[in-house]
Write a structure and sequence with these properties.
Elements: H1 2-19, H2 37-44, E1 49-56, E2 59-60, E3 69-72, E4 77-81, E5 86-96, E6 104-111, H3 115-118, E7 122-129, E8 133-139, E9 146-153
Length: 154
Protein backbone atom coordinates (compact mmCIF):
# COMPACT_ATOMS: atom_id res chain seq x y z
CA UNK A 1 0.00 0.00 0.00
CA UNK A 2 2.82 2.40 0.87
CA UNK A 3 4.59 1.59 -2.40
CA UNK A 4 1.48 2.33 -4.44
CA UNK A 5 1.03 5.68 -2.68
CA UNK A 6 4.70 6.51 -3.20
CA UNK A 7 4.51 5.76 -6.93
CA UNK A 8 1.30 7.79 -7.25
CA UNK A 9 2.98 10.81 -5.61
CA UNK A 10 6.04 10.33 -7.80
CA UNK A 11 3.86 10.20 -10.94
CA UNK A 12 2.02 13.39 -9.92
CA UNK A 13 5.31 15.22 -9.36
CA UNK A 14 6.58 14.06 -12.74
CA UNK A 15 3.42 15.25 -14.50
CA UNK A 16 3.52 18.62 -12.74
CA UNK A 17 7.16 19.07 -13.69
CA UNK A 18 6.50 18.13 -17.32
CA UNK A 19 3.50 20.45 -17.57
CA UNK A 20 5.52 23.40 -16.31
CA UNK A 21 8.43 23.08 -18.74
CA UNK A 22 9.06 25.48 -21.58
CA UNK A 23 7.12 24.99 -24.80
CA UNK A 24 8.20 25.81 -28.37
CA UNK A 25 5.59 28.54 -28.61
CA UNK A 26 6.95 30.47 -25.62
CA UNK A 27 8.26 33.90 -26.56
CA UNK A 28 11.92 34.55 -25.91
CA UNK A 29 12.65 38.22 -25.47
CA UNK A 30 16.05 39.10 -26.89
CA UNK A 31 17.21 42.66 -27.25
CA UNK A 32 20.15 43.36 -29.51
CA UNK A 33 22.96 45.38 -27.98
CA UNK A 34 24.70 48.32 -29.57
CA UNK A 35 28.38 47.92 -28.77
CA UNK A 36 30.97 49.84 -30.70
CA UNK A 37 32.69 47.77 -33.40
CA UNK A 38 36.07 48.54 -31.82
CA UNK A 39 35.05 47.19 -28.41
CA UNK A 40 33.62 44.02 -30.01
CA UNK A 41 36.82 43.53 -32.04
CA UNK A 42 38.94 43.97 -28.91
CA UNK A 43 37.01 41.26 -27.07
CA UNK A 44 37.03 38.81 -29.98
CA UNK A 45 40.75 39.30 -30.65
CA UNK A 46 41.53 37.90 -27.19
CA UNK A 47 42.31 34.17 -27.42
CA UNK A 48 40.35 31.39 -29.08
CA UNK A 49 36.63 30.70 -29.09
CA UNK A 50 34.48 27.61 -29.50
CA UNK A 51 30.91 27.28 -30.71
CA UNK A 52 28.78 26.24 -27.75
CA UNK A 53 25.44 26.57 -29.57
CA UNK A 54 24.36 26.74 -33.22
CA UNK A 55 20.66 26.52 -34.08
CA UNK A 56 19.97 26.74 -37.80
CA UNK A 57 16.83 25.98 -39.80
CA UNK A 58 15.06 24.64 -36.70
CA UNK A 59 17.89 22.13 -36.07
CA UNK A 60 20.57 22.14 -33.37
CA UNK A 61 23.83 21.81 -35.32
CA UNK A 62 26.26 22.47 -32.47
CA UNK A 63 27.87 19.04 -32.76
CA UNK A 64 29.25 19.94 -36.22
CA UNK A 65 31.76 22.25 -34.53
CA UNK A 66 32.95 20.15 -31.60
CA UNK A 67 36.73 20.36 -31.23
CA UNK A 68 37.14 23.51 -33.34
CA UNK A 69 38.84 26.60 -31.95
CA UNK A 70 38.06 29.86 -33.71
CA UNK A 71 40.50 32.76 -33.84
CA UNK A 72 39.09 36.16 -34.79
CA UNK A 73 42.30 37.51 -36.28
CA UNK A 74 43.65 40.66 -37.83
CA UNK A 75 42.53 41.81 -41.27
CA UNK A 76 39.11 40.23 -40.65
CA UNK A 77 40.50 36.68 -41.01
CA UNK A 78 38.60 33.98 -39.09
CA UNK A 79 40.49 30.74 -38.57
CA UNK A 80 38.88 27.50 -37.39
CA UNK A 81 41.46 25.02 -36.10
CA UNK A 82 40.20 21.47 -35.75
CA UNK A 83 41.52 18.03 -34.99
CA UNK A 84 41.36 16.85 -38.60
CA UNK A 85 41.40 20.10 -40.62
CA UNK A 86 41.72 23.88 -40.46
CA UNK A 87 39.47 26.32 -42.31
CA UNK A 88 39.87 30.00 -43.10
CA UNK A 89 37.03 32.46 -43.40
CA UNK A 90 36.29 36.12 -42.79
CA UNK A 91 34.57 38.20 -40.15
CA UNK A 92 33.53 41.84 -40.00
CA UNK A 93 31.93 43.98 -37.29
CA UNK A 94 29.59 46.76 -38.41
CA UNK A 95 27.12 49.10 -36.79
CA UNK A 96 23.79 50.11 -38.30
CA UNK A 97 21.57 53.02 -37.40
CA UNK A 98 22.20 56.67 -36.78
CA UNK A 99 21.20 57.12 -33.16
CA UNK A 100 21.79 54.91 -30.11
CA UNK A 101 18.08 54.01 -30.09
CA UNK A 102 18.06 52.55 -33.60
CA UNK A 103 21.61 51.21 -33.62
CA UNK A 104 22.59 47.54 -33.85
CA UNK A 105 25.97 45.90 -33.92
CA UNK A 106 26.32 43.16 -36.51
CA UNK A 107 28.95 40.53 -37.15
CA UNK A 108 29.26 39.09 -40.64
CA UNK A 109 30.85 35.63 -40.84
CA UNK A 110 31.75 33.81 -44.05
CA UNK A 111 33.43 30.53 -44.97
CA UNK A 112 33.63 28.98 -48.44
CA UNK A 113 33.89 25.37 -47.19
CA UNK A 114 33.00 22.85 -45.76
CA UNK A 115 29.19 22.98 -45.84
CA UNK A 116 28.84 23.04 -42.03
CA UNK A 117 30.97 26.19 -41.93
CA UNK A 118 29.20 27.73 -44.93
CA UNK A 119 26.01 27.54 -42.85
CA UNK A 120 27.62 30.04 -40.44
CA UNK A 121 27.73 32.60 -43.26
CA UNK A 122 25.28 35.27 -42.13
CA UNK A 123 25.08 38.86 -41.02
CA UNK A 124 24.47 38.13 -37.34
CA UNK A 125 22.85 40.56 -34.93
CA UNK A 126 24.86 40.96 -31.71
CA UNK A 127 22.61 39.96 -28.82
CA UNK A 128 25.15 39.95 -25.99
CA UNK A 129 28.90 40.01 -25.57
CA UNK A 130 31.07 39.54 -22.50
CA UNK A 131 34.74 38.72 -22.06
CA UNK A 132 33.86 35.01 -22.33
CA UNK A 133 30.69 34.75 -24.43
CA UNK A 134 29.35 36.06 -27.75
CA UNK A 135 25.63 35.53 -28.46
CA UNK A 136 24.30 36.18 -31.95
CA UNK A 137 21.01 35.78 -33.79
CA UNK A 138 19.85 36.13 -37.37
CA UNK A 139 16.30 36.35 -38.66
CA UNK A 140 16.01 35.05 -42.21
CA UNK A 141 14.06 37.65 -44.16
CA UNK A 142 12.57 35.16 -46.62
CA UNK A 143 11.57 32.32 -44.27
CA UNK A 144 11.19 34.23 -41.01
CA UNK A 145 13.24 31.57 -39.18
CA UNK A 146 15.50 32.73 -36.39
CA UNK A 147 18.96 31.21 -36.12
CA UNK A 148 21.19 31.42 -33.04
CA UNK A 149 24.96 31.20 -32.66
CA UNK A 150 26.93 31.32 -29.41
CA UNK A 151 30.70 31.39 -29.04
CA UNK A 152 32.37 30.67 -25.69
CA UNK A 153 35.96 31.60 -24.97
CA UNK A 154 38.28 28.58 -24.60
Amino acid sequence: MKKAFFFLVLLCLFLLNTASTCCDDDTIAIVAVAKSPDSVRNILNQGTWGISYFFDAKINKTSSFLGYKFTFGANDILIANGVSADYTGHWLVTRTGVTAEDSNTNIAISFSSPIAFVELAEHWNLVNITATQLRLRCVNSSSGETNYLTFEKN
